[in-house]
Amino acid sequence: MHADKEKAKILARVRRIKGQIEALERAVEGEAESEKLLHLIAAARGSISGLMGEVVEHHIRHHLADDPEQPGMLKPEAQQALIDIIHSYVK
């Protein structure tokens, strides 16, 4: 992350996710019903997906340069970097 504002925003999201995971841990330790566990897992997964989307967007906007020979098109190496990110995300 580049700007302190962006870093603070990301850290706040990570800390909220940490809280969700800790709540899940407490629920497992407390032998909560599977329905409760599923809701907690789904919420954490959604939060992580949202964070991933935000970081991928930041990466695209700030790290993948346009090809100077074809404005509006990503350089082939930037295309591959984005493809690799998406592949790792959907695994």
In short:
This protein has helices at 4-29, 34-63, 76-90; strands at residues 66-67, 70-74.
List key phrases describing it:
elongated, mainly alpha, 3 helices
Descriptive account of the structure:
With 91 residues, the protein is mainly α. It is built from three helices and two strands; from the N terminus they run ααββα. A two-stranded antiparallel sheet has the order 1-2. The radius of gyration is 18 Å and the shape is elongated. The model has no long low-confidence stretch (mean pLDDT 85).
List the helices and strands and how they pair.
Elements: H1 4-29, H2 34-63, E1 66-67, E2 70-74, H3 76-90
Antiparallel strand pairs: 1-2
Helix pairs in contact: 1-2, 2-3
Largest sheet: 2 strands, antiparallel
Q: Which structural class fits the helix and strand makeup?
A: mainly alpha
Shape: elongated
Instruction: Report the uncertain regions.
Output: none
Question: Approximately how much beta-strand content do the residues carry?
Answer: 5-15%
Reading the helices and strands in chain order gives HHEEH
